[in-house]
Amino acid sequence: MSDRMDQFRDTLGELSNRELKSVLSDTAIADLIYFWDELSEAEAIRIFSQLDLEKKVNLINELPGPDQESLITALSVEHAKVLLEEMEPDDLTDFMQAVSQEVRDSVWKSLSEEAKQETLFLLKFDEDDAAGLMTTRYLAVPATRTVAQALNWVRKSVQKVETVYYLYVVDQLKRLKGVISLREILSAMDDDRIEDIMVKQVTTVREDTDQEEVARILETYDLIAVPVVDRYNRLLGIVTFDDVIDVIRAEQTEDIYRMGGMAGGTERYMDSSIWTLVKKRIPWLTLLLVAATLTTNVLSYFESLFISATVLTLFIPTITGTGGNSGTQSSTLIIRGLATGELHFHDFGTVLLKELFVGLLIGIGLGILVVARSVVLPPFVGVWEAVSVGIALCFVVLFATLVGATAPLIINRLGFDPTVVAAPLMATLIDITGLTIYFVTARLLLGLS
Amino acid sequence: MSDRMDQFRDTLGELSNRELKSVLSDTAIADLIYFWDELSEAEAIRIFSQLDLEKKVNLINELPGPDQESLITALSVEHAKVLLEEMEPDDLTDFMQAVSQEVRDSVWKSLSEEAKQETLFLLKFDEDDAAGLMTTRYLAVPATRTVAQALNWVRKSVQKVETVYYLYVVDQLKRLKGVISLREILSAMDDDRIEDIMVKQVTTVREDTDQEEVARILETYDLIAVPVVDRYNRLLGIVTFDDVIDVIRAEQTEDIYRMGGMAGGTERYMDSSIWTLVKKRIPWLTLLLVAATLTTNVLSYFESLFISATVLTLFIPTITGTGGNSGTQSSTLIIRGLATGELHFHDFGTVLLKELFVGLLIGIGLGILVVARSVVLPPFVGVWEAVSVGIALCFVVLFATLVGATAPLIINRLGFDPTVVAAPLMATLIDITGLTIYFVTARLLLGLS
Q1: Residue A400 burial by CB count (10 A; 0-12/13-18/19+): exposed, middle or buried?
Q2: Is B317's CB within 8 Å of A435's CB?
Q3: pTM of the predicted model, to two decimals?
């Protein structure tokens, strides 16, 4: 894909409008998005103008607000009107929320009465809820129709709806009575009645269901669309899979940022100002730094100890680093298990027991390694000192493994998100306790005071 | 969902078979999977026996190998035969690969000739390739048919194919000539010819395309299914979205494990033995420990320095910890940008410049914080010593930010996966260089030797 697209981009200036149009008719929108950022505004507008209407709409839907604006404002009023009429109500609403006040006003004027009504209806709902993702262009049929009638209705409406793969069965008050997939309709007999073959137990979401929950439901039940109902079970609209994919992506980015210790939004890196980047990162670093300085208190408490045995100082970063790594590993496993629904709080005992053995085995392994290394490679330390460090490391690893495994379970049980809370809490706890374990063990073994 | 399911599980023993059957007819397979692990084998077999055939098949497809085996072997030969006939060829092939030799042999005997042929065909391909995911039950039509004929064909075949949403147009040698979506067929006129309305530029994958690449293509182009062709463009089968979801999940888990520093497979935590868990974690910890012990060499080099100013020792974990955190933040941002395709190596200059300012601003902020903290809270240190630590911390943060941002770009450019390589390399580099920066700065500022 990328080779063909790179070549296309390089030769863009040499193509006539006709050649460009022909290349574009064979090009997927996803391929255009691939290098859209690298185009000049003039190039972007030129390509846009040579796309057919359907692709224009799809491209607009995929682009961020500022790009949408520059393309729409480059169109004549007439062309813009045709394009806006083609957009799905939910995409149109997103568009209206993304562009500037000025563009919004001029766009509003050119909308049809129907589109205005749909947009106003959708604007009532919170952007982050199910209703904020839904489209009002779904297929609905009365329960008393036959399969042949329904199929005819599908064929007539196919241009006007976002998905034809489900038909929703509603009564006269628009209350949702059932659902039937297009597949089921196709496999039924022409004179079967919809009410006899529809599924009555419909998976629905409420208008205020959080969008991440909507995504989870679509994923869990392998649905292409899910209906949104109000508290009287009246059908308001449907959320389709493609709208949810974006939610899943954004959520994934957010999770990854959280694991990396960052707050706030998921704007693109290149679009973020230096100040935005600083604001995103500094809260977490500040919190972690304040926590980390507690280690100065621990070290200060044991100061007499490392004055009499400076060799102990040499291993401070090794101890805290290895403790942190062991803790991160077990917390990663447990947090992932919680996220996929495999682990629950009632597994606490099993997890604790497993990690006890795992931590002990790994601790012994790493302890032996650090002793061997200290005896064989510089900086050389006394055998007994090396053994003390090794034994201390073993305890630190064991402790870190147990904390890493149990903390997420407890934090999750208390109703917090372990991805966010576990990292700083654990890092601090492991550093402070790890250093204490280290010095206490060494003091005992080396007979210092 | 979970409340209803918890209640169902608790009252399971009291339900008659008829009541159980009625509850199950309204229950989605995803809901059963939710607590499947917690059932005894007898309970599992009882529930399974009361499901209708379609749900039996769906449940079997969702379960891991050992569970599949115990359910299948509990069935009579006759029942097993009916069930196996209902399974899609790709699911059947997966099943055959997951169960024990014994079960495989007995299952093989009860398969129909057609199912045996399909399974043998699919077994020829690598499990991790496109062909390993594909089903051979797709809809194909000749290009010369009319829309009405095609629609009739769809209605006749709907029970036999995995998806009805695309029709593939092939010639007599099974070479792929085009594709048309069911939606397009429904919106066309009855006597339109398929060849006039089909899309000729078909997105395809080859039989040996890696499964993660297949997932990426389905996602990028928002497809429900993608055709698999051989090098003569002959249609071998199709990969549908639901098969790819599992690939995406497994890949996500793998990435998260890698970020947490773990090697190897993505088995479930509760199914992994202690020894498996140790083997998964110890390679990484060993590598990181060996790298971390290089800090002992750095510290040993500066030993005279912290003997004359023990206060410097107190801040060792603060320095390495904060350096590590800053580096992790910027590498997380850059790695995510690379993964989503937003960043490329040619952005190196921009990234470097941005991170220079970001690192400097954050460094100054954190430096001031650590000075303030050291003067206000115990352990109290001299003002000039605190200022030295603060300035050193600022440099360490700046350095770590730059390394964290540029290392993934370089590693990616060299053709390695930055998620795997960046973490240990960075941690070591930042610890070692950070400590060196710290001691050199402090020595200069405090006038020590």
Answers
A1: buried
A2: yes
A3: 0.71
